[in-house]
Amino acid sequence: MARISGPALDDPVYLTQLRRDLLRFARLQLRDAAAAEDAVQEALAAAWTQADRFAAQSEHKTWVFGILRHKLVDTLRARQRTVNLSALESELDGEALLDRELFKDNGHWSRETKPQPWPTPETALRQQQFWTLFEMCLEHLPEHIGRVFMMREFLDLDTDAICAELQMTANHCSVLIYRARLRLRTCLSEKGLSREDANGEV
């Protein structure tokens, strides 16, 4: 790919597409349109002022997404840790039936419902429809589950950092990530993505 530097942000078509993709990603993570807008604006401004640092070792879009990632992490860390306990309790009550179906009394997965290995990102990317469907399913995850999943899989935060940020135990974090993967797998199946599609075999 040819070198793309700061002037690429002068291309209205490229900038419109880039901003749209950045906003979609930020909104999925922050669940706050205004905060997402601020993070994207800061990322684009940083990309403009730091254009000389882009060495064309990756696509320009990938480089800008890297800047946004750091902005999102900063935003998450700056947020006050406030929890609406009544809303959370109601949401967790809705998970009770799922818990009884999926887990044994000791908290471990039931043999029949233990998740199968999740497709690798490289395999999933072979399917053009995967990320469109994945985004739709991700938007419908319960907020507390979706946030943990995205912090781990999209922002590359380790378990310790997630637990410190959200004030939860490592076991709880692991369970939420498993639940996210299970719900995403179920949603993708319901939308027509078969196991063969997910494995990149079609």
User: How much of the polypeptide forms β-strand, as a percent range?
Assistant: under 5%
Q: Please report the distance between the alpha carbons of the first and last residues.
A: 28 Å
Instruction: Please state the average pLDDT score.
Output: 73
Total number of β-strand segments?
A: 0
Q: What is the CATH class designation of the largest domain?
A: Mainly Alpha
CATH superfamily of the largest domain: Winged helix-like DNA-binding domain superfamily/Winged helix DNA-binding domain
| Unreliable stretches covering 5 or more consecutive residues | 1-7, 80-88, 198-202
Topology pattern, helix = H, strand = E: HHHHHHHHHHH
- Provide the structure class: mainly alpha
Query: What gross morphology would you assign?
Result: globular
Instruction: Report the major sheet.
Output: none
What is the fold named in CATH at topology level of the largest domain?
Arc Repressor Mutant, subunit A
Residues in helix, %: 55-70%
Radius of gyration: 19 Å
Domains (count): 2
CATH architecture designation of the largest domain: Orthogonal Bundle
Number of helical elements: 11
